[in-house]
Amino acid sequence: MQIQVERTEYKEIEALRDLYRQEANCQIICDSLLRRELADAYLILVDGRRAGYGGVRNKYDPGRLMEFYTLPHVRSQAQALFRELIRVSGAIEIEAQTNMPLMVTMLYDCATDITEGSILFQDAFITDLPCPNGVFRRATPEEAEAKGAWVVEAGSGVVAWGGFLCHYNPPYGDIFMEVAEPARRQGYGSYLVQEVKRVCYEAGRRPAARCNPTNLASRRTLQKAGFLPCGRMLVGKIVLGG
């Protein structure tokens, strides 16, 4: 088996990435990096035929291998393909979502000093939380520019705001929110998330979310609104044995 890895343009791996996304069947946290040229694309060939691809960050956390995919008929040789990708690209780190088995396997085979980053959430159940004292509405243009597309207004002003981002892999919409300091721990955040989930579905997107593992308040808010953890981002330093 002859393995060849070569730097290439994004358009050369785009069709392979479609297969990668379908197989993942989850929100991919760093989905846009290759498309936006914030990561370098590598085509993997076996005996002269297309067998897979890889992606290595080039701007933020440069040298971090963040995507790897092989076609099914060469999957049994994944480790050899991955090691050649590391050699050619000069990658120094690996990142992997725990809900994407191939990359997690490569991480534990080829890296050490593994640390945990973002927690990824998926919509698990529908809630019927009441608004504590206010109304959920679309933001005005001025509010949307500063905060987000949707707000909760209570009393004399806006107490919570948020929306969903669509630059991740379809059909996922990444929900974000924030609550004004005086209005925290009163239920506004979870109510906002619940309602943003609804409008996300109405827009034809599947709600997802992520947060820092140390942000316990955000984790509780997301879970109260029907989200549950489905994966975590891990990062390790590459150490290759024999």
Report on this structure.
The chain is an alpha+beta fold. The protein folds into 2 domains: 3-117 and 233-238, Gcn5-related N-acetyltransferase (GNAT) (Aminopeptidase, 3-Layer(aba) Sandwich), CATH 3.40.630.30; 126-225, Aminopeptidase, CATH 3.40.630.30. It has helices at 14-24, 78-89, 101-110, 141-146, 188-202, 216-224; strands at 3-8, 39-46, 49-57, 64-70, 93-97, 111-123, 135-138, 150-154, 157-165, 172-179, 206-211, 227-238. The longest helix is centred in the C-terminal third of the chain and has 15 residues, at 188-202. The model has no long low-confidence stretch (mean pLDDT 95). A 12-stranded mixed β-sheet has the order 1-2-3-4-5-12-6-11-10-9-8-7, sandwiched between helices. The protein is built from 6 helices and 12 strands. Helix 2 (78-89) packs across helix 3.
List the helices and strands and how they pair.
Blueprint lengths: L2 E6 L5 H11 L14 E8 L2 E9 L6 E7 L7 H12 L3 E5 L3 H10 E13 L11 E4 L2 H6 L3 E5 L2 E9 L6 E8 L8 H15 L3 E6 L4 H9 L2 E12 L4
Helix pairs in contact: 2-3
Keywords:
242 residues; alpha+beta; Aminopeptidase; 12-stranded mixed sheet; 6 helices; 12 strands; 26% helix; 38% strand; elongated
Summarize the structure.
With 242 residues, the protein is of the alpha+beta class. It is 26% helix and 38% strand. The protein has helices spanning 14-24, 78-89, 101-110, 141-146, 188-202, 216-224, and strands at 3-8, 39-46, 49-57, 64-70, 93-97, 111-123, 135-138, 150-154, 157-165, 172-179, 206-211, 227-238.
